[in-house]
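G., the chain you wanted modeled:
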Amino acid sequence: MICFNSQIRLAKLSFFPYRIKRNNENFRVISHILIHADFQHFTFNMLSVYFLGSFLEDQWRSEFGPEQGIIHILILYFLGGIFATGYLYFKHQDNRHYQSLGASGAVSAVIFAAIFWHPTMKLGLFFIPIPIPAFIFGPIYLLIEYLAMKRGNSGIAHEAHIGGALFGILYVTLLEPKKLITFFELIS
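Predicted structure as tokens:
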């Protein structure tokens, strides 16, 4: 769902740790994943999910069967989005002004699951015209997110991106433990 300029919908569906804790508005743990503030935010997230999620779904369908491919993508996406906000919940549960929205944590889980599933694939960004191997792209992305988080005041929940990435790595490791060994063999 895209809320764009509807402040009422944004207020009703955003991730709002203070209200989750005080008013038991637990639906916000999921609802924030389904809304976006603007078209650019929505488009970037959905393109990432479309390309890398489709790739993973195909890989997992061939590995685990047709039904399991889509089930794993849905689990990865929604649990990744929930996991991505865990740190933010504990950090901001007493801050009546903090709120966030978007699927970036869930998207980050999909991106990093794809990176761990196939670390030699080439990935690129709009501003980096030369695709680079995923096992190089991933650490660079995490470093940029970490530095941006430390700098602060960007209006972006970098902690959610990092949390989603960690969940994506964890999910693949639990799904196929050999992938962790393969990843470290590649980078050593």
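The two ends are 42 Å apart (CA to CA).

Shout if anything looks off.
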